[in-house]
Design a protein that fits this description.
The chain is α+β, with helices and mostly antiparallel strands. The chain has four domains: 211 residues, PAS domain (Beta-Lactamase), CATH 3.30.450; 187 residues, Immunoglobulin-like, CATH 2.60.40; 94 residues, Helix Hairpins (Orthogonal Bundle), CATH 1.10.287; 161 residues, Heat Shock Protein 90, CATH 3.30.565. The chain is built from eleven helices and 26 strands. The strands form five sheets. Strands 1, 3, 6, 7, 9, 10, 13, 14 and 15 form a nine-stranded mixed β-sheet that branches. A six-stranded antiparallel β-sheet has the order 2-4-5-12-11-8, with no helix packed on it. Strands 21-23-24-26-25 form a five-stranded mixed β-sheet. Strand 23 and strand 24 form a beta hairpin. The longest helix is centred in the last third of the chain and has 50 residues. It is rod-shaped. The relative contact order is 0.08.
Length: 723
């Protein structure tokens, strides 16, 4: 697999970034949900304390009944005109059809007659629809409104109830008369106009719907008149002549219901707690809302919407959101969430009964909203009376819309940024892999072409890049240079050996030839030529001994006796011995102050160290002028201890400082001016410093040679590790 493909596969690991981001968003959402739940719990308690007296007083006055007629609050006024344009969203309550027996009601639930109800600060508002193909209006000469079509409303309290008749002489404003039921005797009622404070304003409007003729009555009843109960009965007269005084019969009626409506004083008490982030609803123990609907300013009202209306979203965002919600199901246990009980987000806007079991059994609960990704948090706190009995509940709800928006935006941003980062990183890695591949292929091609078919090293351009490939290229360059030098050494080895061997052979051959030509009686010449032949043979012996010395040193190193010794004492003793062996030179030994607090003990072979010193001192005496000083010194170094041998004389060529310690390398030409020349007749194969190199390497040291600071001689440095 190519490097490019490998890096592309590695770049796929960046796809873990979106997963890591979604995990972070999950954790964030869980924490936000917990904080949201705690905030609502904290806010519910003071609300309960503020409103409990008002709720307890009102609920104590309410009669207990299972038949509740709930009148939701309406803030905006209604035009009393008999049309249902403003009643579209209100609940229709059927008026049950009656059989011929007026005391029996029909169970037919498809009654065409119905009414709707709401209220405001002063009035109870009613809308009544009756289907009637033959409407009999009140005739001015008729003695009683009971002889024509009319509506009877029974309302009041346990102490006092009124029965009100609504009628008209034609489409338009209605007329109303009332009779106290408690004052009725022998089924005879006294109908009187209502007092001015109890005036009912209403309108009778004929309507035709789907070939069905009927009428609507829209009216308002003062709250001082409509108290605890409300019953609506439709009376119909089929007579074609209203002057015949035929009594109208009951056509349909509502169940006698206990009237329940919001407590208006709660509006001001709750205003301090209204926020756009949550919704506050007060409900009684039967689930009927006690807080007025819509009596909230636009700034404090949370966003409400019909849950049946779906919102279009971006397909990509929708897919990501659904996938994220799928991952969140295990965390939030969404499958165990109950469904939201109403068709709108805001409980405070509910105009119908809410199942009280939801709030009695769960003080705080998340609800899932059907067919959406939304969820709703509900926190309920009971309102207790003095007997510690619940009279209602404070219910705070908060939609997850803000939470969803926050987490979805965070998720989309993280996913998009992660995918963009992964794609850009993959492209960058691909480009980087291409560059690396090009450089590696180039290095491979250079390496393959560095040595030709004849084994000769060609030119190799080392890279200047400061990275691993650049280091590898320079290493190859160094390796090839060493191979080139070694090949060059091998090429010149035969010449060097021939040069070294030719001189003694020539001497020996010429001496023998001359010996043949000498007269037998000339013993002096014979002796001279024999001596020269012996000198040539001795020179050959020395050359052969020098060539085998390196091998003997390597074998000696393998069997060297290793122990601890003080190198300072050894060098000092050797320096005194050299002074006796080379009287024409001055030998100085210097031990620097840097070793005052450092041990000079080494672990190694002192015999090998002495042999190394012999080679270096011999080399120094062969190049140093007579009567000069050869200086041996010891000082501390990074590796341990440094041994230096310095002598005056010819400088090292710049190109030979690294090759000086190789085998069969010698740079001597003629003995230096004023030198002893003692070694001029001794063969030099360049093996002495090579042996020094072997000994230093055995002791894990470092060896170097350079021209001294005064540029009048050479100094050799040997760094050895201390014990």
């Amino acid at each position: 697999m190519t490097l490019r493909k490998q890096l592309i596969i590695v770049s796929l690991c960046l796809l873990a970034l979106p997963w890591a981001g979604s995990q972070y968003v999950q954790e964030m959402e869980s924490v936000l949900r917990q904080n949201q739940q705690q905030i609502l719990k904290t806010a519910a308690f003071p609300i309960t304390q503020i409103i409990k007296n008002t709720v307890n007083e009102q609920m104590a006055l309410q009669p207990h009944s299972t038949d509740i007629l709930y009148a939701p609050y309406r803030e905006s006024p209604i035009a009393i005109d008999g049309y249902d344009d403003e009643w579209k969203h209100y609940v229709s309550h059927p008026l049950n059809l009656l059989l011929k027996d007026p005391h029996k009601q029909s169970n037919n639930t498809s009654s065409p007659h119905y009414f709707k109800i709401t209220m405001n600060e002063k009035y109870l508002l009613l809308f009544i629809h009756v289907n009637d193909n033959h409407i009999v209006y009140h005739h001015p000469n008729s003695p009683s409104p009971a002889f024509n079509d009319h509506i009877r409303i029974t309302t009041g309290s346990n102490q006092e109830q009124k029965e009100i008749i609504l009628y008209t002489s034609g489409p338009g404003d209605i007329q109303a008369v009332a009779s106290n039921i408690s004052n009725s005797a022998n089924n005879k009622k006294h109908w009187k106009p209502l007092a001015a404070s109890q005036h009912i304003n209403g309108y009778w409007q004929e309507v035709t719907n789907n070939n069905t003729v009927g009428y609507n009555i829209e009216l308002n009843i003062p709250l001082t008149l409509a108290k605890d109960y409300l019953e609506i009965t439709v009376f119909n007269n089929d007579s074609s002549n209203p002057l015949q005084h035929t009594i109208a019969q009951r056509l349909a009626t509502s169940t006698t219901n206990t009237l329940r409506h919001p407590i208006l004083s709660l509006t001001n008490q709750l205003s301090a707690f209204r926020q756009s982030s949550w919704d506050i609803a007060i409900i009684d123990t039967d689930g009927w809302p006690l807080s007025p609907q819509s009596k909230i300013s636009a700034a404090d009202q949370p966003k409400d919407y019909d849950l049946d209306n779906t919102q279009s979203v971006n397909l990509w965002e929708s897919a990501l959101s659904h996938f994220y919600r799928y991952l969140m199901e295990d965390i939030l246990s969404s499958e165990s969430m109950p469904s939201w009980p109403i068709n709108r987000i805001l409980l405070s806007q509910s105009t119908g009964q809410i199942s009280p079991a939801i709030f009695k059994n769960n003080q705080d609960q998340w609800y899932k909203v059907k067919n959406t990704q939304r969820s709703i948090l509900s926190v309920s706190t009971p309102i207790l009376n003095k007997q510690q009995q619940a009279t209602g509940y404070v219910v705070l709800t908060q939609s997850s819309d803000a939470l969803l928006s926050l987490t979805n935006n965070a998720l989309f941003r993280i996913i998009n940024l992660s995918l963009t980062t992964a794609a850009l990183s993959a492209l960058i890695l691909l480009g980087f892999a291409s560059v690396l591949s090009y450089r590696i292929r180039r290095l491979r091609n250079q390496t393959e072409n560095a040595v030709n078919q004849d084994g000769k090293v060609q030119s190799f351009s080392a890279s200047k890049a400061h990275d691993e490939i650049g280091d590898l290229s320079r290493s190859y360059a160094g390796l090839l240079q060493r191979i080139h030098d070694y090949n060059k050494y091998l090429e010149t080895l035969s010449g060097k050996l021939a040069h070294e061997l030719r001189t003694p052979l020539t001497i020996s051959k010429s001496s023998i030839e001359m010996l043949k030509m000498v007269e037998p009686q000339d013993t002096e010449k014979q002796q001279r030529y024999l001596s020269r032949a012996e000198e040539g043979l001795e020179r050959l012996r020395l050359i052969l001994n020098a060539m085998s010395e390196a091998s003997r040193v390597e074998q000696a190193i393998q069997h060297a006796d290793i122990h601890d010794f003080d190198i300072a004492i050894l060098v000092n003793d050797m320096c005194q011995a050299y002074q006796d062996s080379y009287p024409d030179f001055q030998f100085d030994f210097i031990q620097h102050e840097s070793l005052a607090s450092t041990t000079t003990n080494l672990r190694g072979a002192p015999e090998l160290i002495a042999q190394m010193l012999d080679k270096l001192v011999t080399n120094a005496t062969e190049f140093a002028p007579i009567n000069t000083t050869i200086r041996l010194s010891l000082m501390a170094s990074d590796l341990g201890i440094r041994l230096s041998i310095e002598n005056t004389g010819p400088l090292l060529p710049d190109n030979m400082q690294q090759q000086l310690f190789d085998s069969m390398v010698s740079i001597r030409n003629e003995p230096s001016n004023g030198s002893t020349g003692s070694g001029s007749d001794t063969p030099h194969l360049g093996l002495g410093l090579y042996i020094v190199k072997l000994i230093v390497k055995y002791h894990q040291g470092q060896l170097s040679a350079r021209n001294n600071n005064q540029q009048n001689g050479v100094v050799f440095h040997i760094d050895l590790p201390l014990r």
